[in-house]
Amino acid sequence: MSLPETEYSSSSKGNIPRNPKSNACVYLVGAGPGDPDLLTVKAQRLIHQADAVVYDRLVSEEIIAQIPAGVAKIYVGKATGRHSMPQDEINQLLVKLAKGYRHIVRLKGGDPFIFGRGSEEAEVLTKHNVRFEIVPGITSAMACAAYAGIPLTHRGVADGVHIVTGHRQNDQGLELDLGAFSDSRCTLAVYMGLANLTPIVNAVLAAGRSASTPVAVIEKGTTPEQRRVITDLAHLVADTKAAGVAPPAMVVIGDVVNLANTLDWFEPASDQLQQQSLSQM
What we know:
Helix content is 27%, strand content 21%. It has helices at residues 41-49, 61-64, 87-97, 118-127, 140-147, 178-181, 197-206, 236-243, 269-279; strands spanning 7-8, 25-30, 52-55, 72-75, 78-79, 82-83, 103-108, 131-135, 160-165, 186-191, 214-219, 227-232, 249-253. The strands form three sheets. The protein has a six-stranded parallel β-sheet with strand order 1-4-3-7-2-8, with helices on both faces. Strands 9-10-13-11-12 form a five-stranded mixed β-sheet, with helices on both faces. A two-stranded antiparallel sheet has the order 5-6. The protein is an alpha/beta fold. Strand 11 and strand 12 (227-232) form a beta hairpin.
């Protein structure tokens, strides 16, 4: 099946248009956590100048809508256990695109160098003598926590942050650093942890943290669909399941979570609709 000239899918095996100019550049761009207003000025400029955009599942529809008409859009989204395109194929796709286009934007949710595999793609581009640039994005831990009213650090409460992944490639067992988990003055921010909440809780408890340590689970952070569950380690698994939390979700563990209600400022669309309904009663 032939695809439109400006649209490609991960199943496309067609030829990519040739560009006679050799000064192609692949921009590894962080799109932020979802709110289009958190897109950096440089990221937005590059999207508008792009000849081709390769984007992930976590890039919001509002940001994708900013891609100009006529630009090749290639979806390579990955979810746990379901890969639209394996990482090795994405790496080779970027190399191939550099032979046909001048400005290629590799658009990633959050930041390309924080669990975004941007460094792996950069290594492959280097190996093939393809020029690239890194454009940092606002990472999910920082943004989702802030939109949930949680400072990752707070004087007298937490003076450090430990960022970890709750998921490993090919669903391998987690290798969690209990030593890093033991410091109660260090906030833990866990990416992609929903599928492994039980081993994460067990590891944090084994590191010496109290079962009453506060925890926040932030679903679809910074978007109109944001929800948060405030609980503690002892009840994290049960409360998250009862709330029906689904990916993407950020887990924040530590005493800073106690500030969530005091510093709560963000009103997701669901809250706004509820307030409007109450005002009309």
